[in-house]
Amino acid sequence: MKKTILILIGIFALLGCGGGGGSDQPTIDNLEGTWRGNLNLIADLCDLKVNPLQEHHEIIIAGDKIILVSTDGRTLEGLTMTDDAFEVQISDEQAFPMIDTIMYELIADGTAQVTVEHVWSRPGGCNTKWVGVMSKD
Fold it and tell me: I need a surface site. Which of 63, 96, 107, 126 has the fewest CB within 10 A?
């Protein structure tokens, strides 16, 4: 009983002081900067007919957040998922929103596998997706 109480006190002490103070988000080395690439259309249920998708991204790290300014000037925000992947997203926040998601994976040596996805979530909505490699300037 005494041992259980001591363990609980230790847990509450850690929780009360933030558990050590560091960020729980993984970090990605050499991420900030300008990334460019042409992404191939792999699904076009929204009938956008853009192939290839020529992308230019400015990536900024702000604390735990990743901010990506897209080719068309929109700002997408998100978090790292692992030490070599992150995802950012933007929505028009309507009842049936249009959501754009950009995911960078396998980030290493100035290149990344990138997926750009456009989803219109209305009933009978659609999905368009591009994938390819982007490189850091």
Answer: 63
